Amino acid sequence: MAFALPNPLPSSLLLLLLMMACSTSAQTYRNHSLGSSLTAQDDDSSWASPNGLFSFGFRRIENGGYLLAIWFSKIPELTIVWSANGDDLAPRGSKVELTTDGQFELKDPEGKKIWGADGALSGVAYAAMLDSGNLVLATQNSVNLWESFNLPTDTILPTNTIGPNGKLVARYSETNYSVGRFQFSVQADGNLVLQARDLAADSSYPVYWSSGTVGTASEVFFNESGSIYVKALNGSILKMISESNSESTQEFYQRAILEYDGVFRHYIYPKRPNISNSKSWPSAWTLLLPIIPSNICTAVMELIGSGACGFNSYCELGEDQRPQCKCPKGYDYIDPNDVWKGCKANFIQQSCNESSSEKDLFYLHPMLNTNWPQSDYEHTNGKTEDWCRNSCLGDCFCAAAIYGFGQCWKKKSPLSNGMVDSTIGGKALIKIRKDDSTFTPSYADCKKKDRSTLILIGSVLLSSSVFFNLLLLLVAFLAVFRFDYFKPKVVQRYPVMPGMNLRSFTYEELKNATDGFTEELGHGAFATVYKGALESNRGKLVAVKKLNNIVTQGDLEFKAEVSAIGRTNHKNLVQLLGFSNEGQHRLIVYEFMSRGSLANFLFGGSRPNWYQRIQIALGTARGLLYLHEECSTQIIHCDIKPQNILLDDSLTAKISDFGLAKLLKTDQTRTTTGIRGTKGYVAPEWFRNMPVTVKVDVYSFGILLLEIIYCRKSFEADIQNEDQMILTDWVYDCYKERKLDLSLGKDEEAMSDMKRVERYVMIAIWCIQEDPSLRPAMKKVIQMMEGAVEVPVPPDPSSFISSI
Ligand SMILES: *[C@@H]1O[C@H](CO)[C@@H](O)[C@H](O)[C@H]1NC(C)=O
Ligand SMILES: *[C@@H]1O[C@H](CO)[C@@H](O)[C@H](O)[C@H]1NC(C)=O
Ligand SMILES: *[C@@H]1O[C@H](CO)[C@@H](O)[C@H](O)[C@H]1NC(C)=O
Ligand SMILES: *[C@@H]1O[C@H](CO)[C@@H](O)[C@H](O)[C@H]1NC(C)=O
Ligand SMILES: *[C@@H]1O[C@H](CO)[C@@H](O)[C@H](O)[C@H]1NC(C)=O
Ligand SMILES: *[C@@H]1O[C@H](CO)[C@@H](O)[C@H](O)[C@H]1NC(C)=O
């Protein structure tokens, strides 16, 4: 025996061995006669098998009730091999009883039947837990009238047979014993099959694995030495499922289970410590090969049903060869605690309104070796990937496209049978709405929390002359050039400001790019803006601002401030690409914004799509958050208004026209001459003796948000009804009277999204509070807009307008 081992065993192990030896010998086998019962309580009372290997009784399931079950009692980890009431856990105090009239029933404390052994039980004399793990109800003559082996749940044990029409049904999850998603059954024609199940309908989907033993009635047998096979009723072996040779039932406990992931696995567990390697005992269950099917992810591929994982997810075999259900980019788990439930898109679906195609608002994210087979609704041959991409982007039904080998498949929603495997080839292109993901600033610099410099930029004083601002910006740049040009005498071809992505262009280059300054995008008193295309950058479209006159007198103080602005990099900020400073010519190069300004978009003719407006509002908010909180230097824009929000070809909002730090530093007098130009956007503290903080931008954002919601200017003089002239007043009145729908007019899209309209209006009212400290920070604004944080009822901001 173990005690005679020459190897010194750790004392704890010896103790354990001793205890086991004692408990084994202490087991008494007895027949449980009529009237015997077990109660669900904490003392773990159970009926043990004569060899002490199995127990029958109640097990308390994590945060649930009690499960009437059979388990391996000598193994530390709970290994349940049979259960009666996985779908209907029993409360504490429930009782299983072999009644005096021979019924075997589980009843709750009130006497309500939860489960019962069915069948012709007349003549039952006793119940017994057998050494094999089989619980039987037998007659006086030891004829078994009922056996748990005839009604297996998800597990079979050696000597157990699954006869014709018998089946195993997987549990719901590793620790939830309720009926699960897969089944293993011996069909009447002799075929052993694995199928996924439709839980709601309690029916099965098509077969994903079969033994192919069709023709004669058969059964599955787990023989004494641990081999599992399909055999004909006459005894001949038709198909070997799992063969165990050296690992006999003498040395190992064995079990085979259809697990909750749909895979049939055969496990062994050493009965004794491994003498040559004491570390391997006690050990976990070890898996025997083959596992069936070898790759569940690619095996389950059906016309109906979700596949191995839930809808919209994809299945990937992990390192441990177990399937993992994951969500593609743009999707989240419906229930993070139950990943098999599938995934849902975390963005608003593409509108199918042809006249307001949202094609530009989506992009396709490529996933190599991924497929969602069987959810195609279109298939085209001999096309390019570009064609395939465009076709999916322009099609509101298309949730994803698969492109490979010149073929394009379009997939509809919900995506099913998702799988990733190196054998798949080609790629999946999953469609995601732009702007829904959070940004990642590309400059590490912009994450530091160093707030040493506060830069106020803006054109409050001169808001009507945008180009004067440009001029000042240029002055700033000149200062920097001078500084940089004096030191190294070598003129680089593309000198770049340190730490910045700004490029220096030659005048010729920009002249060529703009085709000799022909296509004018706009002009002001000090500058003209031209459209251009950079040959050196594969025809990238740019906006080139050409300053007419140059007022010099640079100031080196600008350098730090300008470089702070030059370092900003965020997808919701218009990017400064470079400049030219040659002789008399002063030019600034920006990225080109094909859709013009938000002002044109909102107020120019037909009402833009509600969801596009939501995205623009969110984009603007994110851009502001970046300026306020994500950069090493806090930047206050000071002039947020629709004219300063530009839109690129996918309608991404980009904040522009910032970069005028010096203006506020040198000239602290805040005259009111320029304020009219941006009347309605300016926070009240500008007119009071109060410090100007980032909250002035929050105020302006509040006004902008209302304009975006209502597609009208904050002040409209030619409206008949005087109450409606000032948007903020009118909206607050409507909000107070709970009549927000009236102010929406004919905006049906917004009307059908009233909850959001109301939320956004409340956020806007918070933003326009007269008291800056009441206004939320942009981070909070975004959280409220995204619905992550509740919006409290806002107070009346009314006094603000009278103060102007
Ligand atoms: C097991 O899963 C089912 C199906 O999701 C659920 O209804 C049940 O509450 C779960 N049981 C436990 C004990 O968590
Ligand atoms: C259990 O009951 C059966 C039938 O009466 C009998 O043959 C068997 O010996 C009993 N076993 C024990 C251990 O009492
Ligand atoms: C179990 O089946 C295997 C494979 O057919 C066979 O080699 C072995 O002898 C069988 N064991 C018993 C006890 O019948
Ligand atoms: C058992 O049945 C199978 C299939 O019907 C047949 O091929 C085989 O010869 C039979 N074996 C015996 C021993 O009768
Ligand atoms: C016991 O452990 C040794 C060394 O780890 C190993 O080679 C051997 O196969 C093990 N024996 C059994 C029966 O698991
Ligand atoms: C479709 O979009 C157009 C243009 O944006 C709009 O006028 C029309 O009302 C929309 N139709 C529906 C059914 O939403």
UniProtKB/TrEMBL annotation:
Q: Where is the Bulb-type lectin domain?
A: 31-150
Q: Where does ATP bind?
A: K546
Residues making up the signal peptide according to the UniProt record: 1-26
Kindly list the places in or outside the cell where this protein is found, as annotated in its UniProt entry.
Membrane
The UniProt entry's GO CC annotations, sorted and at most eight, read: membrane
Q: What membrane topology does this protein have?
A: Single-pass type I membrane protein
The cross-references to PROSITE patterns, in alphabetical order and at most eight, read:
BULB_LECTIN, PROTEIN_KINASE_ATP, PROTEIN_KINASE_DOM, PROTEIN_KINASE_ST
A Pfam family cross-referenced in the UniProt record is: Pkinase
Family label: Belongs to the protein kinase superfamily. Ser/Thr protein kinase family.
Annotated protein name in UniProt:
Receptor-like serine/threonine-protein kinase
Which organism is this protein's natural source? Carya illinoinensis (Pecan)
